[in-house]
Amino acid sequence: MGSPNGFIQIKRTKPHARPVDVRVRDWHEVYLSTPETDVRDQGARCMDCGIPFCHQGCPLGNQIPEWNDLVYRQRWQAASDRLHATNNFPDFTGRLCPAPCEGSCVLGINDDPVTIKNIELSIVERAFEEGWIRATPPAARTGKRVAVIGSGPAGLAAADQLNKAGHLVTVFEKSDRIGGLLRYGIPEFKIEKRLVNRRLALLEAEGVVFRAGVNVGVDLPTAALRREFDAIVLAGGAGAARDLQVPGRELAGIHFAVEYLTQQNRRCEGDEIPERQLITAAGKRVIIIGGGDTGADCLGTAHRQGALSVHQFELLPRPPESRLPDNPWPQWPRIFRSSSAHEEGGERLFSISTERFVDNGAGQVRALETVGVDVSRSGVTRLPGTERTIDGDLVLLAMGFVGPERGGLIAELGVRLTDRGNVWRDDRWMTSEEGIFAAGDMQRGQSLIVWAIADGRHAAAAVDAYLMGESSLSAIA
Ligand SMILES: Cc1cc2nc3c(=O)[nH]c(=O)nc-3n(C[C@H](O)[C@H](O)[C@H](O)COP(=O)(O)OP(=O)(O)OC[C@H]3O[C@@H](n4cnc5c(N)ncnc54)[C@H](O)[C@@H]3O)c2cc1C
Ligand code: SF4
């Protein structure tokens, strides 16, 4: 531990964001990099606790106190090595992770937790700047071939690990570009896609083969894949979006959030979207149904597109400002949170349910009929007298996902599903089909990037052991 008094003398400081009126006029990332001295000070706040609860908060088991100390001592390259020992893509998690580690930081019991996520980001960006992160292809190949289906963080982490172990890895992706939700879904203002490309270039240089535009189970029969590869990892995500089947759902102007966000991702990449397919918030009154992170991504996107107004609906009540007694440390704090997109405008409505979409007479949505609700363990109760009609001519459904898309891949492979509709796997990460493994949202259900990376690492270690009889790949620390 570098500074014995750091946690007393130094206060937590958040990363600096670009001013709202500047950032809503472009698509660049919201947050600026943090000066080295500030990162060092923040690292000095780490108490190097006897039992570092942040370890158990991080699904990757990142060795947080170790790299905090190395940063404090200005041993940045060693900090990068320590960070990469457990995390393939800290450049993704350092930007996008909700940082459950910070929720279990011991300092958080009676003070603000250490800015773990921002220190992580500063370490990896410094490592890229210094040229410490270079392609390092494996010294020897095993001759075993592995197919990874899906190029999101789970598939990429599995591919990276398996390639490191010397296997020949091909990643298949049905979209035209690699990256899963990192590419199509998560907006540019949260992660610029040049940074996804930066990692992909390294993986390619290390020998991972990417085949975009191949929908396995549709364009490419799984039988062919089984013949060609010694093992298969399913990392196809949980792409089936939850719908809202109320009267008027068929009206024009109502879209799933990911469809909307993907279109903007494509426009940022320079793709032309034909006029009649364009979904834009420009000059529209936007209603986002769903109060979570995907909804917040729609909010930030709508403001950048020039929306007239934006409302974000949430079925659940507004969370408390601080932990309730039934949500003690080191649990993830279930408190009211605002993302950078919420700082940019819009109105959040809680305990509200949509009962009908109203037609403008020409088949286009013009308003939503809503009602206040009480949500309890026994269900959702309407509160009579709280009915409202709220104008809206672009409605974005951001209510989460119900699991992997059925048909195609899953139907053809005939893998067993869980009661929740996710791909079932055993404790060796193998599905009900011999030699076919699963990782990420496809087997976990809708989750987080950090969990996808952790799953990819676990599945890779399991595949390696299956192919070689044993594995030295570490899943987590
Ligand atoms: C809008 C949005 C914003 C989010 N923001 C965050 C965030 O800020 N932080 C965070 O931690 N998490 C966030 N999440 C969640 C996070 O993105 C996911 O948990 C994570 O991407 C899951 O990784 P994955 O690799 O399992 O699947 P995905 O990232 O979904 O990737 C799966 C890939 O598999 C491909 N695929 C599927 N079937 C086939 C097939 N048959 N053949 C070929 N390819 C196939 C899909 O096209 C897709 O590209 C967000 C989710 C959404 C929707
Ligand atoms: S990956 Fe997420 S949970 Fe783990 S240390 Fe980084 S910010 Fe924390």
Describe the structure.
The chain has 477 residues and is an alpha/beta fold. 33% of the residues lie in helices and 16% in strands. The protein contains 18 helices and 16 strands. It has helices at 6-9, 20-23, 36-44, 53-57, 64-72, 76-84, 90-96, 100-103, 116-130, 153-164, 193-205, 222-228, 257-268, 293-305, 340-343, 408-413, 441-444, 449-468; strands at 145-149, 168-173, 209-212, 231-234, 240-241, 254-256, 285-289, 309-313, 347-349, 352-359, 365-376, 379-382, 388-391, 394-397, 401-403, 436-438. The strands form 4 sheets. It has a 5-stranded parallel β-sheet with strand order 3-2-1-4-16, sandwiched between helices. Strands 6-14-7-8-9 form a 5-stranded parallel β-sheet. Bound molecules: flavin-adenine dinucleotide and iron/sulfur cluster. Iron/sulfur cluster (SF4) is lined by residues 57-58, 60, 62, 64, 87, 93, 97, 99-101, 116-117, 120, 450.
